[in-house]
């Protein structure tokens, strides 16, 4: 379910079936990586849209968590989320990002970190991009259903 | 002037009635149109959308058929790709099922659960449906999968509106 008025209503009605929280994480910057980050953000948006469509009934997709790639303390971010997650009752929490920096924080993150390399969709032809995107979606779905069945 | 069949008074009466009539019509027409607007609107949603699926290639085994259309959703106009599960039933009719689980809206797939082959399976809460689209009792879904209206033109499959399953 998405972070919209209608679907949050749906979530509140069927909470017992929604045991997974998905938090996409997108870095931002005004520096040299601006372009790369914008491409990541685009990729993540499409990926999350597709994943949400496939597994709508069991997961809640948070709005993308945006943070400054430099100058923002990631440990602080994690602390806030840890606290806030206690208020909600999610059995599975998935952090999804293309930013490899998060791998260093994998231990501290409450839940599982799924790192997925971004595809520069802008350099691909429509059909090719769609194909690669489908593969990524499939992979992501496998990862999610596997952790459910564990 | 021996023949005066139209008096001044009559002439004025006729013209005023005529002009008044036109004015009344001018006011009423838009109001009537407005009131019956839904009747006049061409049913845009009734259109069939072409898929890339050749009907001759369909078998009794359900396959994924994707189709793309422009969707206007509030502020956004976007290209949406949707999927249908399509197969030929025993009586030769084409069956196109919606992949959206009637429980909470996940996407179901054909034959993906090893323990229950030859069924549609929802990975979210283990919902299952028979090949006909009818939900398996005892699993979370309470209704059968929706069914697409289908049309065949030049050997290509067209999908129309989603309808509730007849077996419901």
TrEMBL record, chain A:
Pfam families assigned: DUF2487 (PF10673)
Matches recorded under InterPro entries: DUF2487 (IPR019615)
Superkingdom of source: Bacteria
Name of the molecule in the record: DUF2487 domain-containing protein
Lineage: Bacteria, Bacillati, Bacillota, Bacilli, Bacillales
UniProtKB/TrEMBL annotation, chain B:
Keyword Manganese on entry: no
Superkingdom in the source lineage: Bacteria
Keyword Oxidoreductase: yes
Spans through the membrane: 12-32
InterPro entries in the cross-refs: Rieske_2Fe-2S, Rieske_2Fe-2S_sf, Rieske_Fe-S_prot, TAT_signal
GO-annotated molecular function: 2 iron, 2 sulfur cluster binding; metal ion binding; monooxygenase activity; oxidoreductase activity, acting on paired donors, with incorporation or reduction of molecular oxygen
Swiss-Prot/TrEMBL keywords: 2Fe-2S, Disulfide bond, Electron transport, Iron, Iron-sulfur, Membrane, Metal-binding, Oxidoreductase, Transmembrane, Transmembrane helix, Transport
Every Rieske domain range: 86-159
PROSITE patterns: RIESKE, TAT
Pfam families, A to Z: Rieske
Subunit field text: The main subunits of the menaquinol:cytochrome c complex are a Rieske-type iron-sulfur protein (QcrA), a cytochrome b (QcrB) and a cytochrome c (QcrC).
Function: Component of the menaquinol:cytochrome c reductase complex. The Rieske protein is a high potential 2Fe-2S protein.
Family: Belongs to the Rieske iron-sulfur protein family.
Name of the protein in question: Menaquinol:cytochrome c reductase iron-sulfur subunit
Organism: Peribacillus loiseleuriae
């Amino acid at each position: 379910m998405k972070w919209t008025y209608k679907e949050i209503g749906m979530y509140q009605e069927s909470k017992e079936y929604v045991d997974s929280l998905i938090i996409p994480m997108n870095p931002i910057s005004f520096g040299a990586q601006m372009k790369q980050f914008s491409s990541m953000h685009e990729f993540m948006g499409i990926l999350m849209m597709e994943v949400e469509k496939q597994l709508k009934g069991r997961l809640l997709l948070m709005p993308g968590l945006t943070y400054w790639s430099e100058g923002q303390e990631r440990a602080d971010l994690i602390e806030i989320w840890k606290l806030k997650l206690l208020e909600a009752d999610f059995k599975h929490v998935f952090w999804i990002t293309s930013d490899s920096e998060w791998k260093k924080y994998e231990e501290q993150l409450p839940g599982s970190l799924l790192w997925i390399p971004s595809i520069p969709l802008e350099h691909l032809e429509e059909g090719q991009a769609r194909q690669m995107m489908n593969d990524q979606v499939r992979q992501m779905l496998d990862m999610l259903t596997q952790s459910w069945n564990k | 002037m021996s023949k005066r069949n139209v008096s001044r008074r009559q002439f004025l009466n006729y013209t005023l009635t005529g002009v008044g009539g036109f004015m009344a019509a001018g006011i009423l027409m838009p109001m009537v149109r407005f009131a019956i607007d839904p009747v006049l609107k061409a049913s845009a949603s009734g259109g069939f959308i072409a898929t890339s699926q050749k009907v001759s290639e369909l078998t009794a085994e359900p396959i994924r058929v994707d189709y793309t259309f422009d969707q206007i959703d509030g502020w956004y106009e976007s290209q949406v790709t949707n999927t249908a599960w399509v197969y030929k039933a025993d009586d030769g009719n084409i069956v196109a099922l919606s992949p959206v689980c009637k429980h909470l809206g996940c996407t179901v797939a054909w034959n993906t659960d090893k323990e229950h082959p030859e069924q549609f399976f929802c990975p979210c809460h283990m919902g299952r449906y028979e090949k006909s689209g009818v939900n398996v009792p005892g699993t979370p879904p309470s209704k059968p999968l929706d069914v697409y209206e289908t049309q065949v033109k030049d050997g290509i499959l067209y999908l129309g509106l989603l309808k509730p399953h007849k077996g419901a």
